[in-house]
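ok so for the tutorial part 2 we go from a plain amino acid sequence to predicted structure tokens. step 1 is just haveing the sequence, like this:
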Amino acid sequence: MPRRAMAVKRRPVQARRVRRFEMERPSVVAVLNEGAAWTATNAQRVPGLALALTALAMLVYLFASPQFYVYKADVTGTQRLSADQVYQTSAVDMSSVFFLAPRAIEVRLLEALPGLEDVRVALGLPARLHIAVVEKQASIVWEAGEQSLLADEQGVIIGAGSAGPEALHIRAIEGAPPATGQALDRAVLETALGLSDLLGGARSFEYSPRQGIGWRTEQGWPVYFGVGGDPNQLVAAMRAVMADIKRQGLRPQFLDVSVPGRPFYR
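step 2 — the prediction. this is what the tokens look like for a chain of 266 residues:
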């Protein structure tokens, strides 16, 4: 009797465990429904994922393909400068067109090439680069040795070459040639410019650190004016002495009027 009572008590517990297992065990229908829901949810993400992968592939193509790298430029407007010189100075060779900034290229060229007055840069796909330049006009020709260096109206050397007769020509008797971008002595230029109109539009002068600005007469001998001073006083002193020289029938080696009150000749 005691053993039968113990067997009867275990049966309800086992039955409850069986029912709990059956309730907690997922059915085939539930598993299928859950799989269908997961598939539907992730299927909605496929277009977005495909678009992201396509965009990534496009970016890799744009930034890695040689088709979008600059290897040359269309340069216009050059006169003294060469197109290759402008392109090499721009420092864009073998650069991706997507990393170039037109304004930065313009500033770089203007700073590196003093002979440029204006620069305009335009970019295009796949790798088009157009550089339009405007070169400064040469107002001064500084002759040093065998070189003819050009300077703008401010006296800044802008390169080598030739200019028309309207430019002010100054031949340096001594001294090293100035470098491109270097400014000439402003006092020297102002002295020559001030004398030009007073000497009948003379555009050709000489210069040396010792005698200053020099000008050759029709007879071929030089007149030295120094640097600075009042051009009117300098020319007046020159004409007074030249009149006296002419009366005496002399042919001096030179005339120095750098100090108008004490001119002398030899």
